[in-house]
Structure prediction request, 233 residues.
Amino acid sequence: MTVALITGASAGLGLALADALADRGWTLVIDARGSGALERARRELSARTEVVAIAGDVTDPAHRTALVATAGRLGRLDLLVNNASHLGPSPQPRLERYPLSELSRVYEVDVFAPLALTQLALPWLATSGGVVVNVSSDAAVEPYPGWGGYGSAKAALDQITAVFGAENPDLGVYAFDPGDMRTEMHQRAFPDEDISDRPEPATIVPAFLHLIDARPPSGRYRASDVLSSPVAS
Prediction:
């Protein structure tokens, strides 16, 4: 049995990743803030595999403890996907007028919560020689006007990922940049635009699966690069 813990798995990329792992027979622990959408995801996935769904906020220490404890009861954890993210205000404000209370929330969800969950999960991941995937963004490396909050948080997550990988060489630790996708969060980032030309999250999944299968050196990987030139282990 292989076990994956995926945050933000009720929609978008998180659900697409869970769906692909369910097809492979992985046991899943999934979370999201919205209990209704999460339950719908659980029902859909449980037709193919064992799924435990726990609604909650990843910034809540008790919720993070419950997620890792569930993996513990299952007996192992092979993969942690820190996918849950907070965009911040919509439309995205320039840094000169970015509300600091909102910026704090972005960092709590996008930086501190993934690190805290990884810290809790590390004993289980170390036992299995597992994989951590932190979902990043091109905004982490490109200075897009209006993206200073979300982008800087993802840049911080990238660096945490890099250092965590260097400190834990027996694990695969990856910052995974999926690129633009047709998701609810992307629509909130561009509230007045038609984003129907963006790719569906499911089209990104093959890059993710190749990454966890090939187990290349820990680091930052863009889905488009992995799909065009598959990485070697």
About this structure: The chain has a mean pLDDT of 93. Residues 3-228 form a domain with the Rossmann fold fold (CATH 3.40.50.720). Helices lie at 12-23, 35-46, 61-74, 100-128, 148-167, 184-189, 205-214, 223-228. The chain is about 45% helix and 15% strand.
